[in-house]
Design brief:
heterodimer, A: 211 residues, mainly alpha, Rna Polymerase Sigma Factor, Chain: A, Arc Repressor Mutant, subunit A, 2 domains, 11 helices, elongated, B: 276 residues, alpha+beta, Phosphorylase Kinase, domain 1, 10 helices, 8 strands, 48% helix, 20% strand, binds zinc ion
């Protein structure tokens, strides 16, 4: 067997179990839904080219996600530059929602998350698209890739503190979107008054703060 | 120094994600064991996060797209060489078919080869008696987790911790019916216990266990003197094996990938109908 064929076989053996996660990650992260195949093609091509540099026994999962993430970043930037000619970067999502966070409906969401989540893949996708690019990739690397903070920092090329704050913020925004969606579609019943809330102040602090 | 409610809740992300140091988790656990409000709050936060994660992870692999990507990105054969491979390919195909046919008959004769419970008990016995070496020895949960994450391509979470009665001693990797497996060995109450961690997708290789886990979230089975408790935990299929009670194994399983023991996260274990 030629060395090149051996390299290809080894690469495919590593890649195959990750294809679903890479594809789901890519679909959820990309601003342009039509770019999935091109992005994966380019990322996988680059990774295969560099596969000689990959040290067997180290973390292939994180290694390949780094290539896909780089390609997604570049593609999203181009997409935004094209569709918003006057903007250089995707704008930061605004923070207005923090002012009118609906505690009562959030409690209802906590009580029965499935009531909303069973109906809202579209709403979730919309909420994801409202996150800024870093928050989006950190959240999805955690959820879809199952990575540790240190691995996410490595893949996204940011410090670990940034990973932690972005993740906390992304989760918070997403929850807000779910509450909005649940409320608008009547999926969340307001909890009965008189519910035990001995730590209301602390809850507020944490929900508005970042870990 | 013990933490108050606010300090505890501020660390929920680290706790939920099994990040941060063991001492922090210990302190959080101490608070949660004394404060039912925070225990409930943590449980609800984690429940919501798991539900969101589950939804985000949904999606399919597009087979024909990946075929195209692989063909273009990983094509290694120059055109001139292809005809040479063609004859070789036919021979290899014929040989493969012969092997597949033989395997089908072999499997029919020995159904246990695809019985996940039997496979896990077999390896557990080898590891416990020293007939199989543990590849990586360490009593540190963090070291074992880091080692395993380097060895397999699916996500692996932190091994069950000492507060669940599990004292880790090492880990390694192997395969069950071609499916990659990460394992952690240790002790519960002085008895050897192994924890086998697989990708959730691997479950489709083992019809009996798959059917049992479709009926129950946690299943216990028995082979010889060994008890096995299994369940799907986030991205993983996890089996805990040992000659201890199912309650002890159950506790270890529930502590996998999560530092907390509070809240009614997992329903009680039920014994599946056990064919062995
Ligand atoms: Zn408390």
């Amino acid at each position: 067997m030629s060395p090149q064929k051996r390299k290809a076989d080894r690469f495919v053996e590593h890649l195959e179990p990750l294809q679903k996660a890479l594809e789901v990650y890519c679909r959820r992260c990309l601003s342009d839904a039509n770019a999935v195949e091109d992005v994966l093609q380019s990322a996988i091509g680059n990774a295969f080219r560099d596969f000689d540099l990959f040290a067997e026994g180290t973390n292939f999962r994180a290694w390949i996600f780094r290539y896909v993430n780089l390609e997604i970043k570049a593609t999203n930037r181009t997409f935004w530059a094209k569709s918003h000619a006057s903007l250089i970067e995707e704008p930061e999502a605004d923070d207005d929602w923090r002012l009118n966070f609906d505690e009562a409906h959030f409690d209802a969401l906590l009580d029965s998350p499935d009531a909303v989540l069973q109906h809202c893949d579209e709403a979730l996708a919309g909420a994801i698209s409202l996150l800024n690019p870093l928050e989006r990739s950190v959240l999805l690397l955690k959820a879809i890739g199952g990575f540790k903070y240190r691995e996410i920092a490595d893949i996204a090329g940011v410090p670990m503190g940034t990973v932690m704050s972005s993740l906390a913020r992304a989760r918070e925004r997403l929850r807000h979107q779910l509450v909005e969606y649940g409320r608008e579609h009547g999926l969340l019943s307001r909890p009965q008054t008189g519910k035990a809330a001995p730590h209301e102040n602390e809850t507020n602090d944490v929900e508005n703060g970042e870990a | 120094m013990s933490m108050n409610c606010e300090q505890t809740r501020q660390h929920w992300h680290l706790f939920h994600d099994s990040e941060g140091d063991a001492e922090l988790h210990q302190r959080i656990n101490e608070h949660l064991s004394m404060c039912p409000e925070c225990a409930r709050w943590f449980f609800q936060q984690s429940q919501l996060e798991e539900a969101v994660t589950e939804t985000l992870r949904q999606g399919e692999r597009t087979a024909d797209m990946w075929d195209r990507i692989s063909r273009r990105a990983v094509s290694t054969e120059p055109t001139a060489a292809r005809s040479r491979y063609l004859l070789g390919g036919i021979l290899v195909l014929a040989a493969s078919m012969l092997i597949v046919v033989s395997l089908v008959f072999w499997n029919a004769a020995d159904g246990s080869s695809r019985d996940l419970t039997t496979l896990s008990v077999g390896l557990h016995e080898k590891l416990a008696t020293g007939r199989e070496d543990v590849k990586f020895s360490s009593g540190s949960h963090i070291e074992i987790e880091e080692y395993l994450r380097r060895q397999v391509t699916f996500p692996v979470r932190c091994p069950p911790r000492e507060d669940a009665g599990f004292h880790a001693a090492g880990g390694g990797v192997c395969k069950f019916d071609q499916a990659p497996v990460a394992y952690v060995v240790g002790q519960v109450g002085g008895q050897r216990v192994s924890v086998f961690i697989m990708s959730r997708e691997s479950l489709s290789r083992f019809p009996e266990q798959q059917a049992a886990l479709q009926r129950r979230q946690i299943v216990s089975q028995q082979r010889g003197d060994c008890e096995v408790v299994m369940g799907e935990v986030n991205e993983n299929l996890v089996l805990v094996v040992g000659r201890v009670t199912t309650d002890q194994l159950d506790r270890v399983l529930k502590a996998y990938g999560s530092y907390h023991e509070h809240g009614p996260q997992v329903p009680p274990t039920h014994r599946a109908s056990d064919p062995a």
